[in-house]
Amino acid sequence: MLFAAAYVLADTAYAGTAALSNRVEVRARDTEGVLGVDVVDVPTAHVDVTNRRWEYTLDYSANAVLPDLELGVSPQLLQLGALGVSWRNRRVRIGLTEYGSYGEQNSGYLLGGAPAAAVPPPTVTPVGGGTQLLAEPVTLLYGSSRTVLASQVVFSRRWSGTASIEYWMQGGVDAASQAYLPFVSGPRADASATYALTRIDSLQTRASGLESSSTNAPCSPAAIGVRTSLPCDPTAQEAIATETWQHHLSPEWTSALGAGAAWVRLKLQAPQLYSTFVYPVGSASIERATGPVENRNIVRLEALVTPVLDVRIGLLDERGQATLDVSQQFGKTKLTSRVTGTRSLDSQLMQPVTGFGASLETEVQVSTVVSVGGGIRYAWQEQDNIGTLSGGYIFAGVTLRAPEIHF
After folding, report:
1. What integer is the mean pLDDT of 374-397?
2. Phi and psi at residue 3, in whole multiples of 5°?
3. Fewer CB within 10 A of the terminal residue: the chain, N end or C end?
4. 21 within 8 A of 41, measured Cβ to Cβ
């Protein structure tokens, strides 16, 4: 009886943590040859409450930007949040999470600077995600929502699987903003099964699907074969199937190789008929990871060939992408860098695009509550009928962290 009572109490007792921080950055920015000085404040809050079966999470962050201080004070605010609940036992985990954001956004000011709570662009890829390119550097009223029901299951010692369904929406909220960035929405589903062949080899079979529709808006100059007298309301559908082999070369090195196919169906305007395409999908990566799990040193090189949903236009575009990520810890100093390049491989309804991005950042932990850092971020892209868009900035920042609260 006492054992049963103790078990029930342990199963229903909750424990929680709350973490607060605030980061301030000063940026010397160059956007399309126009110089400016910006100050960005990023407050964040995270609350986590758990027991043996249930976990509840709440995340909030914001980008409060004072752009072009040399011209005066005109603040912009983009707020981001996430609320989630999940249930788990020894073999199963099921969770429901709602992500959202709302506020003013300008790709020239927030280049590469979105906080962790930002809603990621919806993409369907075998691994990782496709890089989203810069929208025009104008200030938009932006909103997004992403509702995700996801599960993880361990079937046996060798078999495991994942599944998720979601509905997402993002883009310009009002008509003026949608003229630059359409409001795109739709459902998405994803499922995978992984089989451990040996202690160092595994195979993953993955299938995913996506449907998107965009608001009526003036057609993008990058669109091909449109009637200029009519607005564009792009719709896209996609199904992808891939097989990926993962191999541990050593305790530190891991490689992966994947291949598959994508079925894509696209339409730009209501009078048009759907165009259907079948594209190859491929992925290859190699990664070296050392150090403790909570503070890993990672070097990762990845290449992808896959359709990517370009939310600037609302169409799927077959692209090749290569990315190098480096994260290294040297005592109390952390160094992170990323270099990525992307190129359209088969653009049927939109002009091909080429993009490049790079960042180099360092963070020094001065104490348990203060860290300082700085670095450089840069992005460049070129597309016919759009031209060249580029921007970057050098920044320095300080982060203050409150002592973690346990309750």
Report:
1. 91
2. -65, -45
3. N
4. no
Q: What is the pTM of this model?
A: 0.85
pLDDT tens per residue, range 319-332: 999 999 999 998 89
3-state SS assignment for residue 387 = strand
Local confidence band at 208 (pLDDT 50, 70, 90 cut-offs): very high
**Burial bucket for residue 209 (CB in 10 Å: 0-12, 13-18, 19+):** middle
Coil, helix or strand at residue 172 = strand
71 DSSP 8-state letter: G
From 166, 29, 147, select the one nearest 83 (Cα to Cα): 147
Give the span between the Cα atoms of 208 and 321, in whole angstroms.
Answer: 20
**Helix and strand totals (H; E) in the chain:** 2, 19
Q: What is the DSSP letter of 176?
A: H
The percent of residues in the chain predicted with pLDDT above 90, rounded, is 64
- Helix, strand, coil share (%) of the chain residues, nearest 5: 5, 65, 30
Domains of the chain: 2-406 (2.40.160)
Q: How far apart are CA 380 and CA 390, in angstroms?
A: 4
SS (HEC) of 262-322: EEEEEECCCCCCCEEEEEEEEEEEEEEEECCHHHCEEEEEEEEEEEEEECCCCEEEEEEEE
